[in-house]
Every structure is written in C-alpha cells, then in structure tokens.
Specification:
Blueprint lengths: L1 E2 L2 E2 L3 E8 L2 E9 L10 E4 L2 H9 L6 H18 L3 H14 L4 H14 L4 H38 L6 E5 L16 H8 L4 E6 L6 H13 L3 E4 L4 H6 L5 E4 L3 E3 L4 E4 L2 H10 L4 E4 L5 E2 L16 H4 E5 L5 E5 L12 E4 L6 E4 L2 E3 L23
Helix pairs in contact: 1-2, 1-3, 2-3, 2-4, 2-5, 3-4, 4-5, 5-6
InterPro entries: IF-2B-related (IPR000649), IF-M1Pi (IPR005251), IF_2B-like_C (IPR042529), Initiation_fac_2B_a/b/d (IPR011559), M1Pi_N (IPR027363), NagB/RpiA_transferase-like (IPR037171)
Pathway: Amino-acid biosynthesis; L-methionine biosynthesis via salvage pathway; L-methionine from S-methyl-5-thio-alpha-D-ribose 1-phosphate: step 1/6
EC number: 5.3.1.23
Length: 375
C-alpha cells in the first residue's frame, strides 16, 4: 500500500551482512505505535518474532501466518537442526492461540524443511516464507475483486453513498498487503464507487480507531469512527448497507471467529436485514474444527481493559487508567458468530454460503493446504 508516496508491505526480509557471511533479518511495521508514530523495526531472531507476535507489533491472522513463516526462517538461520526447528515451532505456536494461520504456516514450513538436508534448510526456509507472503497478497487481491462484485450489486439502484460497517482491523495492516475485509472497500474506491466506512473503535485495543482509520485515511477512503455500541443504532436507521468483517479462524461449518464484539454486530445485522459478510482466506479456514466450541479463545492481559493509551496534548504518548482501582476485569479477545448469522463468506475462490465452504476443497492444492475434514 502507498504510505507517503512509498509502497510498503507489512513485513519483508532484509539482507544483513555479517562479516564474510550474508544473513537475513525481517522488517515489520510496529503497529503498537500507530497511528501516532510510523516505526519500522527489524527482527534478528525467532525469539524476537515470537515477542512481536505476542505483543501485537504484528497482528491479524494472515499477517501472523506470514510472520510465523519468517520466524521459522530466522530459526533455520540460527540452526537448521530438527531439534531447534521443532523448539522454534513450539514457541511460535504458543505466541497466540486463536489465529489458525499461525499453525497453518508453521506446519507448512516444517513440512518443507524436514524433507531436505540440513545444509539446504535455511535457503529453503527463506524461499518458502517469501512464497507464503506473496500468496497472501494474491489471495487478498482476489478477495477484493469478489467482494467488489457484492458491493456493486448492493449499489445498484441505491441513491448516494454505499455505507459499509467493519469491526476491528482487517485491512492491509492485518495482512501482508491489501487486507481481507477492507480489500473489497479499496477495490470499490479505486473503481470509482462512492463508498464510506463506519469504523468501530474496537475496544479494548482500539484497532479500529487507531489502525483501520489510519489506513483508510492513507488511501483516501471516506470513513467515520463510531463507538462499539453504535452499530445497531446505525442499522436501525438505515445507515448501514452491509457489514464486512475479517476472521481469525473459520470452522468448516462456516462459523466465524473474529475480534470480540463481532457477534453483536451480526445479531444487529440479522435483526435489521443487513447483509453480514466475512472475508476469509483459505488458510484461515480450520478444516479440523466443525464445532465452534472447540476454537481456543485467547484471554489477554486485563490491563488492556483497565488502561487506555493515547497521545497527550503535549504530543507525548501516555497511558491512563479508566477503571476503579481493585476492579476485576476479563479480556476475551475473540467471539464466534454462528454460521446462521453469516450471509456469505468471501474467499479468494469466490463467495460461498457458510454451509457450502467444503466446495472450496476441490480448488485447494493439497500440497499447500492438506485437509483433514471434520464433520
């Protein structure tokens, strides 16, 4: 995406000379300081990558998958032994439990690396990580085009602006590029459609207010930030033409696990006859889970509920407590929207009714997406 007249992905490898040897590091955009600061940091070890994923310097299911792949490449650079790679895989898998792309990418890297001699594993690792990143870009571009067709149909005969409501950040910052839920919006805007986005703030980490708003602003897409509780009101008054969200995991039955609060938007959309779409790349579909109750829901630090970070009037970043001292808090990071509330799932292969996701299997390369289907 274009930031300050320069094209960026959210993650990319860099060559770093170490004496007579050439080594790689990984550059990322530090999302914990956006929108107030633009900071690129470099990671030199798998431990640094684990920390970046855990601290949400990189976040969003597709980007977490690509980051995990590059984490495995960093591990292979440290030592290509199977023992070290297995240990690195375990640390990466434990960094965030809900986003299935992380597991998918780590398992794909391990399948690739363990069948080649140790001396070649580092070379293969960087090559495969680059492939995963490039695939993510192509997948998201395709999601954008399929979603664009949905938006164009909604706009037929509608006077004025098309209004899309989204929750959390599922734009290019959540992927390697283009995004999932926002990819159709960018495609529509670039095609000349009059489109506007209602941006949920998305407590407690405010990824909507800080990240979605920032990247829409960079692209020039009109948007309005609203508090998390405003979505139902907007729908009741005919101000939302559709809801598009991303996903951190989808079951093979079409249930959508996404940022906490998504379920409430789906309920409001169903009550008001508003189409509810989920943009889901194939690597985000967990074919091994049919019952959404089996999805692990990440419980994050309760300080994210108690404390809000922002920029003070003097321009410095600061944190303030908004709850009474001694208050108990809970911080589930995700919830599950049942398939019955989902109008359509937008994938890189097209748009599918939740109950027809298995139709994708005939289009999936088993070498890339080995599937054990649960029923």
């Amino acid at each position: 995406m274009n930031i300050g007249q320069q094209l960026f992905r959210t993650i990319w490898p860099l060559v770093r000379e170490k004496g007579e040897h050439t080594a790689y590091c990984v550059a990322i955009i530090d999302q914990t300081v956006l929108p107030h600061e633009w900071r690129i940091i470099t990671l030199d070890s798998v431990e640094q990558m684990v920390d970046a994923i855990r601290r949400m310097q990189v976040r969003g299911a597709p980007l977490i998958g690509a980051a995990a792949a590059y984490g495995m490449a960093l591990a292979s650079q440290e030592s290509p032994s199977e023992q070290h790679l297995q240990a690195a895989a375990s640390r990466l898998l434990a960094s965030r439990p809900t986003a299935v792309n992380l597991r998918w990418a780590v398992e794909r890297m391990m399948r690739t690396l363990l069948v080649v001699p140790e001396a070649q594993r580092c070379e293969y690792a960087w090559r495969e990580a680059d492939c995963i990143a490039d695939e993510d870009v192509r997948i998201n571009q395709a999601i954008g085009q399929h979603g664009l067709a949905l938006l164009q149909r909604l706009a037929v005969g509608k006077p004025g602006r098309l209004n899309v409501l989204t929750h959390c950040n599922a734009g290019w910052l959540a992927t390697v590029d283009w995004g999932t839920a926002l990819a159709p919006v960018y495609a529509a805007f670039d095609a000349g459609m009059d489109v506007h986005v209602w941006v949920d703030e998305t407590r407690p980490r405010n990824q909507g207010a800080s990240l979605t708003a920032w990247e829409l602003q960079q692209h020039g897409v009109p948007y309005t930030i609203v508090c998390d509780n405003a979505g139902g009101h907007l729908m009741q008054h005919g101000k939302v033409d559709c809801v598009i969200v991303g996903a951190d995991r989808a079951t093979c039955a079409g249930d959508i696990c996404n940022k906490i609060g998504t379920y409430l938007k789906a309920l409001a959309a169903a009550d008001n006859g508003v189409p509810f779409y989920a943009a889901v790349p194939t690597p985000t579909i967990d074919w091994q889970i049919a019952d959404a109750k089996d999805i692990p829901i990440e419980e994050r630090d309760v300080d994210e509920v108690h404390i809000v970070a922002g920029r003070a009037e003097n321009g410095c970043m600061t944190s303030v407590r908004v709850t009474p001292e001694g208050s108990a808090a809970a911080n589930p990071a995700f919830d599950v929207t049942p398939a019955r509330l989902v109008t359509s799932i937008i994938t890189e292969h097209g748009c599918y009714a939740p109950g027809r996701l298995s139709d994708i299997l005939q289009l999936v390369d088993p070498a890339i997406h080995p599937v054990t289907m649960q029923t």
